[in-house]
Model the fold of this input.
Amino acid sequence: MKMFGLKRIVDEKVDKTVNMASDVVNRLLDTSYKGGLFSMIIVTIVWVSIFLYIAFYYAYMPSLMFTRPVHMQFKSCYSDKGICDYPSAHVQLTKNHQLLMIGQKYKMTVDVELPESPVNEEIGMFMLCVRLGDKYGYLISSSCRSSRLRYKSQLYRLIHTLFMVPFYLTELSAEKQLIQLEMFTDYEEDQLHPVTDIYFEILNHDIQIYSTKLNIIANLGGLRYLMFHWPILSACLGIGSNLLFVFFVFSMSWRHIYGPEVYKNEPNDFLDRSERLDEFDSEDESEVSDDLCKKEFLPYKFSSSNLMIPEQ
Done:
């Protein structure tokens, strides 16, 4: 008997130890599963917030600068040396799609590189005109600006030439000037007539030009200015706001799916109703059985109000 009692005690101890170990293992597995799931959700939320900010940045921020070379063309004269018409050029920005962003202001400048030749010195002032058109040939806007070579006195020219002789001989520099003309200061794209073609014309026959270049620069302001000049600060603020929004949406979805409110209304109401129906049915059945036991079965007595009167 003592051996059987000792064996039972040992079996109980072993069972308790096994149960405790299984409980600990189950808790560890549950904790690791919940921790892994939570970490995966956090990583997903962070990456979604970063992706949303990057998508917003590329959709909201315009291209800062567009540069196009301008190749001037002219007709030479047969009788005399020189140019018979004004130097002009046509630059096609795009064919069908829209290049500039709607609602963004742009500054358009033209860089004209002129040699410091006696001809250009004698010309003095010259005029540059720019016309903007859409793909159907509609004139959107036009602008003309005047300029000339910067004046240099004989003494300044002599000292500058002596100083720059080594650079001129090695072709690291040249006797030229770069003149920048601001054609449009705050140009804003028209949604109905987007700019696709730009026409240039210099109103002088004798001017000598090295090269010409068009620059379209975005005038950033407000949130775009902040996002461009302070990218780290704006990225932290944007990703942080996206984190709050995505985490709020996720928590509301989680509460709606797995929250306790789902299990409070319909199942309890259904159980309460079923219990009440069972009680009501049981009470009615007991009352009817008692009446049938105490009394004999009597046929149903129709009242005069229940009888149907035949038609006459």
About this structure: Strands lie at 65-70, 88-92, 105-115, 126-133, 139-147, 176-188, 197-202, 211-218. The chain has six helices and eight strands.
